[in-house]
Amino acid sequence: MSSSSLHRLPTPAARLDAVLADLATRFAATAAAHDADGSFPHDNFALLHQYGLIAQIVPLAHGGGGAGLAEARRIISAVAGGDPATALVLAMTYLQHRAVSRADSHWPAAARDAVLRSAVEQGALINALRVEPELGSPARGGLPGTVATRVGDRWRLRGHKLYTTGIPALRWLAVWARTHEPEPRIGLFLVPKPDAQTPGIRVIESWNHMGLRASGSHETVLEDVWIPLGNAVDLRPPEAWAPAGASQADLDANTDQQAWMVTLLGSLYDAVARAGFGWIRQFVQERAPGSLGKPLATLPRVQESIGEMAALLRTNAVLLDDAAGRTDAGAPPSVSDGGLLKFTVTSNAIRVVELALQLSGNHGLSRNNPLERHYRDVLCSRIHTPQNDAILTAAGRAALGL
Fold it and tell me: For the domain bounded by 3-124, which CATH number is listed?
């Protein structure tokens, strides 16, 4: 689709909200089917591009929407309310666009411009490929097994990545790898993926997860993938990537990037919980067992549980709105506070859906209703970096002055 055919979104928030409400309804209509067979929702991304939403945080200077975190949060929340797998892929693209667009970004100008221009013109998606079978999550440390070897004026990449979310539709892969040098350096290598048959890129369709089944988070194998030298991004010695070796500018960038990550992921899983909350409210208002003779909603115990869910979701809204506003104002929460935000919001979201299941009983566990899918999806929040053990250990050490 050409950029001229896009429905450019007017500035007023009400117009964006109307578009998002319509898209969320359309996405929700197909979410169960995509979940059931693990199929990737390509049509959803065509619609997002049609309204310019894939490029919504691309800077205005590059033709994008120039949105900040608060607006990105609104978009991810709405999309996740319809189909959280679609929202996850979009959130990953937003995070990469943010990293690429920062004024202090280490991205080469040509690579940066190609990524941002393709997002505007083609709705191109991008994600980072970091996790590996042997390494696990890079957040836990260690050298990546994926290797980039310089051969003349190109890099050759070989490696195996896990959980490459969105791979059926990604246009760009930001591959975390080490160089084949006497003293290896680590960094990102931008790999173009024009279509499903890109030479050297082999997708193993192994994603058969309990939740977010439509996210296309398959394995990706890089077999002699060739890219220009200019597609290497910020190569450094391993020790320079550790916090102790980072400059103040790098620390500031990391704080900003983490604020975006925890706010967008928190918004996604909060939206899943809100979908579950909406379902259980309707259920208890309509369900009137013969033994009771009136709707479940009239019972004080049910009212108390609904009130607890409302309190948890209200807490989430306040925390997420505050983090987004502070970040847009140039004062993002610290990395440790961002971790606690993620822990609190996602724990609250899981608790909301668990309470809904307790109220609904067998009805909530039936695959004929969406609540069991919301539960499977919301549990995935525990897997995203930073993970709960790392968050709480860091918080505990800080509280103990260690």
Answer: 1.10.540.10
